[in-house]
Amino acid sequence: MKRSIALIAAALCGAASLSACAQQGGALRAVSSPDAPKAIGPYSQAVRAGNVLYLAGQIPIHPKTGELMKDAPIEAQTRLVLDNLKAVLAADGMTMANVVSTTVYMKDLNDFAKMNEVYGTYFTGVTPARATVQVARLPRDVAVEIGAIAVKP
C-alpha cells in the first residue's frame, strides 16, 4: 500500500514537473535504447521529465532485425511489444515495476483475453492503471501497440 501511494504521489509530482520543465525550457531528456526499435518518425522512444518517463507506443518490431511481426499471433506481438518497452525502461535504469500507467491499442478487442494473459506476466505487485481501446488501424497494420508512463520514486 505504501508503495502504491508513493508511486501515485510521484506520478502527480511528475505531471507537475513536466509543466515546470516546459515553463523553464529545460530538464526534458530523450531516452533511447539500441535494444528497442528505432523511432519511425519525429518522436523519441521515451522522454524523461523529472522523475517521470513517458514511453512512446511500441509495436511488434524486432529491434535487432527490424522484422515486423504483424502476421504473428497476438500473444507473440504482445510479448515483443512489452519486451521493447522493457528495453527502453532499462535504458533509464527502470523496470516494469516502475510503470504506473499503460495504454493498449488493439485492432480487435476479440483478442483481449489472449493479450491480457501475456500482459499479466510482465507485471507483479502493484499493476499499472490501464486503458485499452480498439482502433480502426495501427501503424504498419499490427494488432497491438502499447505506450506507458513510469515513475522513479
From TrEMBL:
Q: Which UniProt keywords apply?
A: Signal
Q: Which SUPFAM superfamilies match?
A: YjgF-like
Q: Name one Pfam family in it.
A: Ribonuc_L-PSP
Q: Which residues form the signal peptide?
A: 1-22
Q: Give the molecular function GO annotations.
A: deaminase activity
Listed GO CC annotations: cytosol
Keyword hit for Protein transport: no
Q: Does the keyword Nucleotide-binding apply?
A: no
* Similarity annotation: Belongs to the RutC family.
This one is known as RidA family protein
